[in-house]
Amino acid sequence: MTTSVRDLQERSFGATLRRDAWWIAPALTALVLGSFGIYATWAAWVNRSFEWGPYLSPFYSPLINAGWWPLSPAFLILIFPLGFRATCYYYRKAYYRAFFLDPVACAVGEPRHGYKGETKFPFIIQNIHRYFMYAAVVFIFILAYDVWVATRWPVNGVLPDGSMGTGPTTFGVGIGTIVMAINVVLLSCYTFGCHSLRHLVGGQVDCFSCARGGKARFQTWRGVSALNRHHMLFAWCSLFGVALTDVYIRLCAMGVIHDVRIF
Amino acid sequence: MAEQRTLRVFRGTRERGELKEYTVAAGEGSVVLDAVHMIQAEHAPDLAVRWNCKAGKCGSCSAEINGKPRLMCMTRMSDYAPDETITVTPMRAFPVIKDLVTDVSWNYEVNKRIPAFQPRKPDAPDGTWRMYQYEVERPQEFRKCIECFLCQDVCHVLRTHEKHQQFMGPAMLVRAAVYEMHPLDDADRREHLRHEGGIGYCNITKCCTEVCPESIQITDNAIIPLKERLVDAKYDPLAALLRKLTG
Fold it and tell me: CA of A228: which chain B residue's CA is closest?
């Protein structure tokens, strides 16, 4: 068999000498990210069943009343977390591989041969990731506030239509409160492990012993780095966390399931 | 007891070559480089292969084994099923000289163009510098690089798109990070990284990190921090305004 060196190059899509199942990871990524995208678009579009009792879906938090906006307010909210994830250094790897096939897997042929990377429009826009990170940090506090609100229950119980009614409230914790709290923890682990945050808190410093507040910056950088090492894990867990929190509250609001008040 | 194993090895030059099949005995614990040496000893004394330490530290025996960039000396034969034919080819991102040997001199040329280490003015009373272990640990991770160039080989910007003129590749970005993040260094390499280095071509797909035999976190610890430093200089209007206000 005569094979020129050129024949050994991966010159067509999927061409490779690899024998492992390299296509499973990008296929799974495409399936899960695609499914989340479809679900999130639908959940934002319907503009109902997003709150029950003291619970509020993260897709609709903070509650805004935008009369001038013809669509669901969720779209105004989701632009920030969506932008944060779309420009995230981990998700970039995931979707460049799964959707742009650039490359679909390491040492596997690509479908396109004109390549500009992130040097030109549109992908040069990825460089604004830190601005979305600022917004994502604000959202952590908003969602943490929602968890606190989710511990305030009406003394006379939630009304049959799922609203809080008027009257005094008391402290209480339901399954939904715990679901919302876990969601905030996962989102915090993801957001506070962000590569841009890591850079801004200390990554840009070369000489910590010479910089103002260098010791504190080093400790902060080390803390962010510890979360950053598991950025992929938290990226996925927090994605599932957001979706499951919305599903749980939606099912409560639709009357499909009944929330259990723990205390 | 030694098992009979079949290997398909690339034989030829950059113009012409073929995958030739050889069967050799591979004992317990043997690695692909051992099998290649057996081929040299028993079947093909003219088979060209670059190797040196056989301990994963010299970075000489880089090749592609069943399509994956790996060090031959660190890849055990037992990683593959006994009846599996193991294909060994040279690195794709560099021109073949002969058989499994490639010309990696391009990397050294790129390395020469990286602005050199430039220490800041001595600031200790004795006319020298002080630095602490905790702040030099970051660039020390990159010093583990053994220059096997597997990361350059797997990087699709070089391997598939052949942007050798525009992009320096992950190994050279690691090299630049050694200086750029050093606590004593005073040089600014961001313009070099942007233009000559073409750091924007990297789209963070992390193949370089996956193949690094030294487990250097190339993408997370070298490339992304360098990209962020470039954002500071070129793509962050707030940072630019702050710099203007604070002089």
Answer: B220
Of A196, A204, A206, which has the smallest distance from its Cβ to B182's Cβ?
A206
ipTM: 0.93
Q: Decide if A199 touches B, using CB distance below 8 A.
A: yes
Q: Which two tokens stand for residue B192?
A: 């070099």
Q: Is B157 on the interface with A (CB under 8 A)?
A: yes
What integer best gives the mean pLDDT of chain A? 94
Phi then psi for A56, rounded to 5 degrees?
-135, 130
CA-wise closest residue to A204 among B112, B236, B195: B236
Percent of chain B with pLDDT over 70: 99
Kindly state whether residue A241 falls inside one of the protein's structural domains.
yes
Range list of β-strands (E), chain A: 51-52, 55-56, 152-154, 169-171
Q: What per-residue confidence (pLDDT) applies to A1?
A: 41
Range of the domain at A144: 27-84+126-254
- Residue A9 in contact with partner chain B when CB distance is under 8 A: yes
**Looking at the complex, does the CB of residue B198 fall below 8 Å from at least one CB of chain A?**
yes
* Among B156, B167, B211, beta carbon nearest to A103: B156
The structure tokens listed for A146 are 């929602």
Please say whether the beta carbons of A174 and A262 come within 8 A.
Answer: yes
Q: Is the whole model's pTM more than 0.90, yes or no?
A: yes
Of A50, A51, A76, residue with least CA distance to A135: A76
pLDDT at A66: 81
Q: Which distant-in-sequence residues (6+ apart) come within 8 Å of B68 by Cβ? A: A18, A106, A107, B211
Give the whole-angstrom CA distance, residue B10 versus residue B88: 6
| Cis amide linkage into residue B213, ω under 30° from 0 | no
Instruction: Give which of B224, B232, B243 to mutate to test A binding, by max A Cβ within 10 Å.
Output: B224
**Predicted local confidence at residue A5, as pLDDT:** 57
DSSP per position, A101-143: -TTSSTT---S-----TTSSTTGGGGGGHHHHHHHHHHHHHHH
Q: Does residue A101 form part of some domain?
A: no
Q: Structural domain tally of chain A?
A: 1
Kindly state whether residue A17 falls inside one of the protein's structural domains.
Answer: no
Residues of chain B numbered 119-138 and touching chain A (CB < 8 Å): 123, 130-132, 134-135
- Whether A121 is covered by a domain: the verdict is no
Q: How large is the average pLDDT for residues A147-168?
A: 90
Tokens 């993040």 — which residue? B181
